[in-house]
Write a structure and sequence with these properties.
Length: 131
């Protein structure tokens, strides 16, 4: 069972909360993995991306707009989207995955455009990536 709600039925409040908690748990593990200098390999990252039905090489091959559209369909809350973008920034530090920084920019922009509240933290992260 993946983290993504592939059925067409809307999520109820409780199931939406559980859905976002499962996503948060997976993203926390991914962040922890990427924070260890030289401590991750593609297989370890792929294990954490399994719930999202992605592998790191597939993620890197996706155009940014397609990735953002893919993620937006699953109603991930803004905090988890920010955590995902943060993980993408960390993953982009490895040779061959620099494109993931662009994906992070796309996710941060999506957060700012679709959110009810403007986030100074996200704006700062966008500014840092664009410099």
């Amino acid at each position: 069972m993946g983290l993504i709600n592939n059925n067409k039925m809307p999520l109820t409040f409780n199931s939406r909360d559980e859905h976002n908690q499962r996503i948060n748990n997976a993203l926390q593990r991914l962040m922890a993995l990427t924070l260890v200098p030289g401590g991750w390999d593609d297989d370890a990252v792929n294990e954490q991306l399994k719930p999202f039905l992605l592998k790191i090489d597939e993620l890197a091959a996706l155009p940014t707009a397609a990735f953002v559209s893919f993620i937006a369909r699953y109603k991930v809350d803004p905090d988890n989207l920010e955590l995902l973008a943060d993980a993408l920034v960390n993953l982009s530090q490895k040779a061959g995955y620099e494109v993931l920084a662009g994906h992070a920019v796309g996710v941060y922009e999506h957060i700012q455009q679709s959110g009810d509240v403007f986030s100074l933290t996200v704006a700062g992260k966008l500014k840092a990536l664009r410099s």
